[in-house]
Automatic annotation (TrEMBL):
Signal peptide: none annotated. It comes from the Eukaryota. This is Fe2OG dioxygenase domain-containing protein. One of its GO terms (molecular function) is metal ion binding. InterPro entries: IPNS-like_FE2OG_OXY, IPNS-like_sf, Oxoglu/Fe-dep_dioxygenase_dom, Plant_2OG-oxidoreductases. Pfam families: 2OG-FeII_Oxy (PF03171). Residues 62-134 form the Fe2OG dioxygenase domain. Coiled coil: none annotated. PROSITE patterns: FE2OG_OXY. Keywords: Iron, Metal-binding.
Length: 134
C-alpha cells in the first residue's frame, strides 16, 4: 500500500477515516518543526546564518512537504523482495519513521546494509537540494 499526501503549503488529506486528517496534520506540523530545527543546525555547522536556507529558499511559503506512507505486507520469501531501486532523495531532508520491519538499506563498500534505528527514532537523510548549498 502506498499513500502520498501534499501537506504544505496547502494541506490536502482525506477526511476519512474519522480523525485521520487532524492526526496527520498535527504530525506533519511537528515533523516540519523538527526539519526547521535540523536545518538551523546544518546551516550553523556550515558556517552560515542559521536562517540562511529558510530565507534563500523561502521555505515558509515556497516549499513543499509531502507525507508518504508505504506499507509492505509480510512476505513468505523476504530474500526475493526487490523493494525500490537505488535512488537519492531529491528534496532538502527526508525524515523517515520506520517501524520494526527493516526497510531502509544503504549501500556501503558495494553491499546493501540494513538501517536498524532504535525504536521510536527518526532517520534523517540529506537530499539532493542540500548537497548544492555550498
Amino acid at each position: 500500500m502506498y499513500l502520498k499526501i501534499h501537506v504544505h503549503p496547502q494541506f490536502n488529506a482525506p477526511q476519512n477515516p474519522l480523525g485521520f486528517s487532524e492526526t496527520i496534520q498535527e504530525y506533519c506540523k511537528r515533523v516540519r518543526e523538527l526539519a526547521n530545527e535540523l536545518l538551523k543546525g546544518i546551516m550553523e555547522s556550515l558556517g552560515l546564518e542559521e536562517s540562511y536556507i529558510q530565507k534563500a529558499m523561502d521555505l515558509e511559503t515556497d516549499s513543499h512537504q509531502l507525507l508518504v506512507v508505504n506499507l509492505y505486507p509480510p512476505c513468505p520469501q523476504p530474500e526475493v523482495v526487490m523493494g525500490l531501486p537505488p535512488h537519492s532523495d531529491h528534496g532538502l531532508l527526508t525524515i523517515l519513521m520506520q517501524n520494526d520491519h527493516v526497510g531502509l538499506h544503504v549501500r556501503h563498500d558495494g553491499k546493501w546494509i540494513p538501517v536498524n534505528p532504535p525504536p521510536g527514532s527518526f532517520v534523517v537523510n540529506i537530499g539532493d537540494h542540500m548537497e548544492i548549498l555550498k
